[in-house]
Design a protein that fits this description.
alpha+beta; 190 residues; globular; six-stranded antiparallel β-sheet; 4 helices; 44% helix
Amino acid sequence: MFRSMISLIRRVLLASLLSACATLAYADSPSNPDAPANEQPTAQAQTLEQLLDAGGFMYKKLDGGKYRVMVEGNGEVTAIVCYEGVAYTTNDGVEVKIIYMYRWLADLAEGTEPSMALVKYVNNWNDKAYVGSVIINQYGVYNSNFLWLSSCTAQNFADNLYFLHYDGLKLAKEIKGLLEETSQEAANAR
């Protein structure tokens, strides 16, 4: 448990660092035709809705400030839920916000405990992932990620949505197979 917590903290810190570096590098890069000449990237916070609009994503506003975003690629469409949250408040009272995003991978039947094979697979995936993590709770299995709102560009946000989409396609197939094995084992044990 302690090792997986350290691993999760390490991934979150690495993801934050990579996101910040990529944002700064991209904003000033000559490969970014939209970057104004001789202008530094702004650290002014935007809203999640502005990022969704800038990326041209189809989305639906849900209760509680959440958004269901539809991401399409490789002939597949994925619903990703995104919302803003407060990571912490500075001593000056400034709220530092994040964008949290997750996508559903698989349901867990009510009262079902995840198999050791599934837990091992998720731990191995999380240990090797550079960005995001896979979460198991009493309802199912999810792929999640977060970004710092203050340094998030529309491109960075879109990249992360597509990351969850494409990685989620691979993960969902693997996890579905592991859940089918778990169901078979439970049926055979009865």
